């Protein structure tokens, strides 16, 4: 391994210590007899100061360094309030490990905004930008913190197939794949498999994985390849047990991320709010009433909320100090959702959760009664043979259960306050983007 430490680990208290760093020449300033090279690595930056009257040979070598060249520098740490981080390196050796072509595809050291398409075309360079790098460091902390909560609560981390015979959501939003001599599709969701595991006695499971939606879209909140966090739990009373899990795990995730990713949040200039109060839980009809009476907005689809409606509801509840809100009882639930009972106060046992005005979670109680399930399958025109493997699992004692899917890309977008969901994905896939 090349001798080095991360720049973030070098502090003014290391004054007089000899260290080695390796990274990219983020910024170069030539002031005649003195040259400053700001070296950037994964964790931060440090300034190396080359003076002609101190070491002419090393000073001349520094003149050969170009923007974004990869360099390896050994030197002595000096405490100074004139340098970023109140410390700098007095170099004793300099090696140019890899040269960068000039001109660069885009400038990442100056406050110059490139359009998103250009950034994605040159993603390897764009990802070197400290602000962009911070997004994905933040994302890592979010996922790690979320998985940690479920691990501590006794959930089992599972894997389900990426290639399936049919989609859990049905419809035309499926990517067909060549699978020997059979028709198959990329998975829309692990939904059916999560439920089968409830019949197998796994009780509580989660999955961090990928889903695919072959939708034609041109929005700032959709992509074709989606990162999802899926959860399923058994022996529940109703959908409120599922919402409790959503609320507790998200609060923990945000709290832990705020502590662990404080540097990333500072780079992104984000003051992450941790919701301390219970998330409001309102009926679907109440959500539409708020939109109609307070904003004069009525979504065209009477059984859903549109994008504008979600944003307006987000504003409404944020003003009341609630960044997250549950909308409960959506009509027209899919075949695997539990039917509303006579004693229910909601139209259905399905819910969505909005976070800062964007749908982040969809879930609810599932149907566990095989007769009711079969009736709903037939009502939706699904051929039972296509999901016989799934239906069979309900015949041998299926416990009451429920679950949800959380969009990880959307979570990152909202926490990092990004304009477009593609900014939250390393290499996004959309109808018009299949590379890099």
Task: Give a verbal description of the structure.
The protein is α+β, with helices and mostly antiparallel strands. It folds into two domains: 7-98, Nucleic acid-binding proteins (OB fold (Dihydrolipoamide Acetyltransferase, E2P)), CATH 2.40.50; 130-424, Bira Bifunctional Protein, Domain 2 (BirA Bifunctional Protein, domain 2), CATH 3.30.930. The chain has twelve helices and 16 strands. It has an eight-stranded mixed sheet with strand order 6-10-11-16-15-14-13-12, with helices on both faces. Strands 1-2-3-5-4 form a five-stranded mixed beta barrel. The chain has a three-stranded antiparallel sheet with strand order 7-9-8, with no helix packed on it. Helix 4 crosses helix 6 (239-260). It is elongated and about 85 Å long. The mean pLDDT is 94.
Mean of the pLDDT scores?
94
Number of helices: 12
Element string (H = helix, E = strand) = EEEHEEHHHEEEEHEEHHEHHEEEHHEH
CATH class of the largest domain: Alpha Beta
| Spatial order of the strands forming the largest sheet | 6-10-11-16-15-14-13-12
Q: Report Rg.
A: 26 Å
Structural class: alpha+beta
Beta content: 25-35%
* Residue windows where pLDDT falls under 50 for at least 5 positions: none
* Quaternary: single chain
> CATH superfamily name of the largest domain?
Bira Bifunctional Protein, Domain 2
CATH architecture of the largest domain: 2-Layer Sandwich
Which overall shape is indicated by the principal axes computed on the Cα atoms? Answer: elongated
Roughly what percent helix? 25-40%
């Amino acid at each position: 391994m090349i001798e080095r430490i991360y720049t973030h680990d070098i502090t003014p208290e290391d004054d007089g210590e000899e260290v080695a760093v390796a990274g990219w020449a983020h910024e170069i300033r030539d002031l005649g007899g003195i040259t400053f090279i700001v070296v950037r690595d994964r964790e931060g930056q440090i300034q190396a100061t080359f003076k002609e009257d101190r070491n002419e040979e090393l000073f001349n070598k520094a003149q050969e360094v170009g923007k974004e060249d990869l360099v390896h520098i050994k030197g002595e740490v000096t405490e100074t309030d004139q340098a970023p981080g109140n410390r700098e390196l007095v170099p004793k050796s300099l090696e140019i490990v890899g040269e960068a072509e000039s001109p660069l595809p885009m400038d990442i050291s100056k406050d110059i905004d490139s359009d998103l398409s250009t950034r994605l075309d040159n993603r390897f360079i764009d990802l070197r930008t400290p602000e962009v790098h911070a997004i994905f460091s933040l994302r890592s902390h979010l996922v790690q913190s979320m998985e940690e909560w479920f691990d501590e609560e006794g959930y089992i981390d599972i894997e389900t197939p990426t290639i399936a015979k049919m989609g859990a959501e049905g419809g035309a939003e499926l990517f067909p794949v060549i699978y020997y001599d059979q028709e198959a599709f990329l998975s829309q969701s692990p939904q059916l498999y999560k439920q089968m595991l409830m019949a197998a006695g796994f009780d509580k499971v989660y999955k961090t994985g990928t889903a695919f939606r072959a939708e034609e879209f041109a929005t700032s909140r959709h992509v074709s390849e989606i990162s999802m966090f899926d959860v399923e739990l058994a022996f529940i009373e109703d959908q409120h047990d599922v919402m409790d899990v959503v609320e507790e795990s998200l609060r923990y995730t945000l709290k832990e991320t705020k502590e662990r990713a404080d540097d990333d949040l500072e780079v992104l200039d984000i003051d992450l709010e941790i919701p301390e109060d219970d998330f409001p839980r309102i009926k679907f009809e109440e959500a539409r009433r708020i939109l109609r009476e307070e904003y004069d907005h009525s979504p065209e689809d009477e059984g859903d909320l549109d994008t504008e409606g979600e944003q307006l509801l987000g504003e409404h509840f944020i003003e009341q100090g609630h960044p997250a809100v549950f909308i409960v009882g959506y009509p027209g639930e899919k075949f695997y959702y539990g039917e509303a009972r006579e004693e229910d106060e909601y139209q259905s046992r399905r819910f969505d959760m909005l976070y800062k005005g964007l749908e982040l979670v969809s879930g609810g109680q599932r149907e566990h009664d095989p007769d009711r399930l079969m009736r709903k399958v037939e009502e939706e025109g699904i051929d039972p043979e296509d999901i016989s493997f799934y239906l069979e699992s309900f015949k041998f004692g299926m416990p009451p259960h429920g679950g949800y899917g959380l969009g990880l890309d959307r979570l990152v977008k909202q926490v990092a306050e990004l304009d477009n969901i593609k900014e939250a994905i390393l290499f996004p896939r959309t109808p018009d983007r299949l590379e890099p």
